[in-house]
Amino acid sequence: MIGKLIWKNIWFKKGNLLLSVLLFMLGTAVISLLLLVQHGISGKLDRDLQDIDAVVGAKGSPLQLVLSAVYHVDAPTGNINYDDLLASTRGPLVEQVIPLAYGDGYRGYRIVGTTTDYITKYNGELAQGNIFSTAMEVVLGAKVANNTGLKTGEHFAGNHGGDGDAHEEPYTVAGILKPTGTVLDFLILTPVESVWQVHAHQDKTVDENGKRSHAADTAESTSADITAALIKYRSPMAIMTFPRMINAQTNFQAVNPTLEINKLQSLMGVGVDTLKAIAGVIMLVSAFSVLIMLYNRLKERRYELALMRTMGASRWLLAVLLLAEGLILSLAGVLLGLLISRGILLLLSQAGSLNQQIPFTFALLPQELVLIGVTLLLGLAAAIIPAIAAFRLNIAKTLGDG
Amino acid sequence: MIVAQNIVHQYPGGSSFTYPNIALHGGETLLIKGKSGSGKTTLLHLLSGLLRLQKGVIHIDDIELQTLSAKSLDLFRGKHIGLVLQQHHFVESISAADNIRLAAFLANKKIDEQHLQHLIQTLGIAKLLHKLPGTLSVGEQQRVSIARALINKPGLLLADEPTSSLDDDNCHAVASLLKALCKDAGTALIVVTHDNRLHADFPNQIVLS
């Protein structure tokens, strides 16, 4: 009966109900969306970093180098000579060097010349076919295969610079990887020699035409050139010494990717915190709206509350009725907010290729449990003043006034 | 049964009322008359425990009201005292039937379905039960509020100006219904009114001056 009474009382004034629930919904949806996006991006950044201790590439912006070589979302800083790099990394400090040579693409997906170590680093497993064994063979990431429709044994030509003219040499699909939830899913992987072969041919063509090589303007790999390399240290000592050595003794730069990503995240954090603060204000406004609504309703309902006292209801019961109404309104708001945030996330995750790369979660985050708790507390706090007024209601005077 | 003796009530810095003694058994009726400001409603609030007694003693169904804690008094009122008020207040958001059932729920009493059906038939409210109180006429609200007041078979029914908004025919009809229902349930009935039309319906009367 109490549950029915609470629900009927809330539903009796739907207009007021709607406004309060909408405000709670708006505040929680914004905060929830920020948490989900932040969680998705952080997860993506962490997963793709794996155990990469350093990224070596041409001098330029360190962050650009990391975004380009680790996440494949930015243009490269330039090319470096592979032999020189190997010479610089020889010694006790470095355990593994994974070369990356890129510049071309196919239907928006980057073709990366590398070694099989790159696939192993991200725990890539074959879904179909084989790992590339010779130049001009490729292995497709799961999303690439899914979105381009390419199958094992099929041929395709890479585009110059990603969206330029098609190269003459066709690639052959040797295998397709299972989804890894990492950057691997969005890449076309081939031996580094493939990239050299394609560009050696192009350089020749350019020379024959008497025109300036395009590779000189961009970071496209030419023979024995790579774009960047992912480094794994042999010992923690290298953290301090390796970047210093590379930066001082070579014309490359060595960047600690974790450091760069932390800088990026702290920059993004300022904007996220501002949005969270705005959403927090919206939630406070919604709590205030619930307070005003419940207080006005209390004034309208004072006779029926007094009547309930004459029928045996205790002061506590009336207070609990009001508190429950505040709680239910905030609960409805937060649940709708969580649903809305997931709806927006679903739209966002299908909107563009960048967003497709971020594996958003739709499950409830631990921070969202806190959000639910805080929202319910706000709803409860908003109902406290009306509840106290109901508790203190003078029945005889109220009924006398009526 | 109700016994009220030596009751005096004084409002802070205001009027003081001294009331005659009252002794009423189940099924008996009493009409308390008086002009506006004679303290009729104050007496009704004292008898129902809505106002704390300052002086005197009130026993209802052998329980002395002053000995009850605030919480016990709330529950006692729900179980043992029925109230029909001048303004027929209801919980607006629930149906007439739920308003009647709410009285039993709040008093923590199980509904006697047979008794409920008897009230519904006698008061002629079967077709009103599913309606919201705000959609009922004053007369219909009156009948539903009587059913609500009697659902718990209280020892005492207090009616405050129950006929003030009714025409002559309905006035006597309501008076007859109240008397008949209280007699059936063994409930003592006290009607507080300034309505002279009820004189003939209630021979046992007290006049407040």
Detailed description of the structure:
The complex is a heterodimer of chains A (402) and B (209). Chain A has 402 residues and is an alpha+beta fold. Chain A has two domains: 2-45 and 263-401, no CATH class; 54-255, no CATH class. Helix content of chain A is 58%, strand content 17%. In chain A, strands 1, 3, 4, 5, 6, 7, 8, 9, 11 and 12 form a ten-stranded mixed β-sheet that branches. In chain A, strands 2-10 form a two-stranded antiparallel ribbon. The model of chain A is unreliable at 205-222 (pLDDT under 50). Chain B has helices at 40-47, 70-80, 96-106, 113-123, 138-150, 168-185, and strands at residues 2-10, 16-18, 22-24, 29-34, 55-60, 63-64, 81-84, 156-160, 188-193, 205-208. In chain B, the strands form two sheets. In chain B, strands 1, 2, 3, 5 and 6 form a five-stranded antiparallel β-sheet that branches. Chain B has a five-stranded parallel β-sheet with strand order 7-8-9-4-10, with helices on both faces. In chain B, strand 1 (2-10) and strand 2 form a beta hairpin. Chain B is globular, with a radius of gyration of 16 Å. The interface between A and B is medium-sized, with 27 and 30 residues.
